[in-house]
Amino acid sequence: MPGGGRFWLIVLAMLTINWILFSQFSAPPERLSVSYTAFVAEVEDGNVAELVSTGDTIQGTFATPIADPSPEEDGSGEGATYDLFETERPTFAEDDLLELLADNAVEVNAEPADAPAPLWQQLVFGFGPTLLLLWIIFSVFRRASAGMGAGIGGLGRSKAKRYELGANRTTFEDVAGIEDAEDELVEIVDFLRNPDKYTRLGGAIPKGVLLTGPPGTGKTLLARAVAGEADVPFFSMSASEFIEMVVGVGASRVRDLFEQAKKVAPAIIFIDELDSIGRSRGGGMAMGGHDEREQTLNQILTEMDGFTGSEGVIVIAATNRPEILDQALLRPGRFDRQVVVAPPDQRGRAAIIGVHTRGKPLGDEVDIEAIASSTPGMVGADLKNLVNEAALMAARRQHEKIAMNDFTDALEKVVLGTERRIMMSPEERERTAYHESGHALLGMLQPGADPVRKISIVPRGRALGVTFQSPDADKYSYGEEYLRGKIIGMLGGRAAEDVIYGTTSTGAENDMVQATNLIRNMVGRWGMSVAIGPVAVFDERSTDAFGRPQVSEHTMRLVDDEIRRISDECYAAAVESIENHRGQLEALAAALLDKETLEENEAYEVAGIVRDP
Question: Which CATH number fits domain 346-416: 1.20.140.10, 1.10.8.60, 3.40.50.150, 1.10.10.10?
Answer without folding.
Answer: 1.10.8.60
